[in-house]
Design goal:
Keywords: Hydrolase
Strand content: 15-25%
Organism: Paractinoplanes durhamensis
GO molecular function: hydrolase activity
Mean pLDDT: 94
InterPro entries: ATPase_NBD (IPR043129), GppA/Ppx_hydrolase (IPR050273), Ppx_GppA_N (IPR003695)
Low-confidence stretches: none
Number of domains: 2
Number of helices: 13
Order of helices and strands: EEEHHEHHEHEEEHHEHHEHHHEH
CATH class of the largest domain: Alpha Beta
Number of strands: 11
CATH architecture of the largest domain: 2-Layer Sandwich
Pfam families: Ppx-GppA
Oligomer: single chain
Length: 302
């Protein structure tokens, strides 16, 4: 049995999984998530903001303390969309090395897809082939495969990027939603032309937008990962939740019992992405997964 620490640093959140991995199974020791918005403003400036780097450093310091308290065999930190795009990515790498003692791996879109697929399909009892969609803050990954990744593409559409680019009002105006819809639809159609998502038997959705929408579709009184993981949500239910979220103010979203406070201002953009993916792919339902790239990272170093 190996005890490992996996860290996933994306555009919106940074997450830690400490787990014991044995016989192809992950046994959680600790899962943590902090919304740090590392990619705030990157789509406009091309740089990681000083305040965003400071927020990320504070979260990492907490993770490093927990890792130090436990007997960890290996640590791997992967950084995705925002730190790939930024002109000052070297500052980010130096900060991580100083806090954590390891270099962050600024992984490619292909590697991100492989890790997401591995985490998503572990323990999944559903009909292959799969279309895996991982809706992040800065990008969305589209991955198809049966036993492993067969085709994958990463598109620069994510909940933070679409909100910063289009959804400026609170709530967004019809014109803003239309502009975002055109942008997202063009990207989704290009993705589905590159990977055979329309012929997949099962659509699996990853990350906070999808799990939050699954919780809302089920009417959960609080966020319950055990009821969200592998929940199957119809296309009609996803469209209804997306439309409702886009019609709400940030304050109204914050009042929803399943909403993470750090997601409320950008979840409408992510919801619109999932709605359009389901419309354009023709998938009747999405299976929400609490297991994703973080679990894939843990498997990769076990």
């Amino acid at each position: 049995m190996n005890r490992v620490a996996a860290i996933d640093c994306g555009t919106n959140s940074i997450r830690l999984l400490i787990a014991d991995v044995t016989d192809g199974e992950i046994i959680d020791v600790s899962r943590r998530m902090e919304i740090v918005r590392l990619g705030e403003g990157v789509d406009r400036t091309g740089r990681l903001a000083d305040a965003a780097l400071a927020r990320t450093k504070k979260a990492l310091q907490g993770y490093a303390s927990e890792i130090a308290e436990l007997a960890i065999d290996r640590v791997r930190m992967c950084a995705t969309s925002a730190s790939r795009d930024a002109s000052n990515a070297a500052d980010f790498r130096d900060m991580v090395r100083g806090v954590l003692g390891v270099d962050p791996e600024v992984i490619t879109g292909d590697e991100e897809a492989r890790l997401s697929f591995t985490g998503a399909v572990a323990g999944l009892n559903a009909q292959p082939p799969f279309l895996i969609v991982d809706i992040g803050g800065g990008s969305t990954e589209f991955v198809t495969g049966t036993d492993g990744v067969e085709q994958a593409i990463s598109m620069d559409i994510g909940c933070v990027r679409m909100t910063e680019r289009h959804l400026h009002s609170d709530p967004p105006t019809a014109a803003e939603i239309d502009a975002a819809t055109r942008d997202i639809t063009e990207a989704v159609d290009r993705a589905l032309a590159a990977v055979p998502g329309r012929s997949a038997s099962t659509l699996v959705g990853l990350a906070g937008t999808v799990t939050t929408m699954a919780a809302l579709a089920q009417g959960l009184p609080e966020y319950d990962a055990t009821r969200i993981h592998h929940a199957r949500v119809s296309r009609e239910a996803i469209a209804k939740v997306a439309d409702e979220l886009l019609a709400m103010t940030t304050a109204e979203r914050l009042a929803l019992p399943v909403m993470h406070p750090g997601r409320a201002d950008v979840v409408g953009g992510g919801a619109l992405i999932l709605k359009i993916i389901m419309e354009r792919s023709g998938q009747d339902a999405v299976v929400a997964s609490e297991h994703d790239i973080l679990d894939g990272i843990a498997f990769s170093i076990a």
